[in-house]
Amino acid sequence: VLDSQYGMYVWPCAVVLAQYLWVHRRSLPGKRVLEVGAGVSLPGVLAAKCGAEVILSDSEELPQCLQNCRKSCLMNNLPHVPVIGLTWGRISPELLSLAPIDIILGSDVFFDPKDFEDILTTIYFLLEKNPHAQFWTTYQVRSADWSIEALLYKWKLKNTHIPLHSFSADREHLASSSLPGRHTIEMMIISLAQSDGT
């Protein structure tokens, strides 16, 4: 039985994002990485194992998720990886004091449409502070009616679709899940739009 909190389970999106990190592992040593909505932290833990300087975060309102982040680090011999509470859409001292970041990770953070703008507000804030950073994110297609396109435009962000076959993540067993139904996973990289509108 799944816990009622989302961050207690390795969702298929986390496996796909971890695959992308694994394929790009040679570029990770020394990179400064923040995982948002980390839950059990598979992508962030993998990035740390590959030599990135990682900070894990989840909502400050979900102490059990933050505890799971810490447990994942301990189980993977990463006791020094910081875990902080960051709540989407909230400017907090933890958010303001973050060190520079190269890559933001987020697997299945676009889960509930009511959170989409809060997520992108936080991502925009981080990208404004770190203009060369990118947000690497995977999401599960749950409804044809859900879109972040208008919000990306509003927040002057652009997205690049990353085909799953380009990093060997299009195999059914990779993102398989014991959850009912089929799981269509997509990946994109979000960054600041250039001033020329691209």
From TrEMBL:
InterPro entries cross-referenced by the UniProt entry: Methyltransf_16, SAM-dependent_MTases_sf
Family matches, as Gene3D superfamilies: Vaccinia Virus protein VP39
Keywords: Chromatin regulator, Cytoplasm, Developmental protein, Methyltransferase, Nucleus, S-adenosyl-L-methionine, Transferase
Major site of localization recorded for this protein: cytoplasm
Region forming the signal peptide: none
GO biological process: chromatin organization; methylation; regulation of gene expression
Protein's name according to its UniProt entry: Histone-arginine methyltransferase METTL23
Species for this entry: Chunga burmeisteri
